[in-house]
Design a protein that fits this description.
This protein is α+β, with helices and mostly antiparallel strands and 156 residues long. The protein is built from five helices and five strands. Strand 4, helix 3 and strand 5 form a beta-alpha-beta unit. The radius of gyration is 16 Å and the shape is globular.
């Protein structure tokens, strides 16, 4: 039995462990530089910038969906799903769909004009799922990123 609920500050150690599990799955464990303290400040400080849902069974938190509000100059309010993670032993059991549904419902209830996320091009199970829910997979846009060091070194 899986329960989906809004995440709380006390959930963050479990959330952080799932983020690390995701990094392993995505073959990039060394890329996680965010800390538990960062997550506490950024999600539960004076100006929270993200929210999340958790999936839990009788034993533990087994999945998360972390999201935030973004803004499109063309479309307006956008709900951005940053990560949807289900612990490996429960993948393909419907937990991911339940978490996805919770965020989609949040987008609907908050009046978002768009609901967006990214998926790695080799993650076939996720791509299959996103196609099944009717999402448009756009391969025209290229994701651009500056690291923290690049941001600090940047001068206009």
């Amino acid at each position: 039995m899986i329960n989906i609920r809004r995440g709380a500050k006390d959930d963050l150690p479990h959330v952080y462990a799932l983020i690390q599990e995701l990094a392993e799955f995505e073959r990039a464990p060394q890329e996680v530089t965010n800390t538990l303290e960062d997550m506490q400040r950024d999600g539960f400080g004076e100006d929270p910038i993200y929210k999340f849902f958790v999936a839990e069974n009788e034993d533990a938190i087994v999945g998360i969906a972390l999201y935030y509000t973004a803004y499109s100059t063309w479309k307006g309010k956008t709900l951005w799903l940053e990560d949807l993670v289900v612990t490996e032993r429960l993948r393909r059991s419907g937990v991911g769909r339940q978490l996805f549904n919770a965020v989609a419902q949040e987008a609907k209830e908050t009046g978002a004009k768009r609901f967006r996320w990214q998926v790695l091009d080799w993650n076939e199970p996720a791509i299959t799922f996103y196609n099944k829910v009717g999402a448009e997979l756009d391969n025209q846009w290229i994701t651009c990123t500056m690291t923290e060091a690049q941001v600090q070194q940047y001068s206009a």
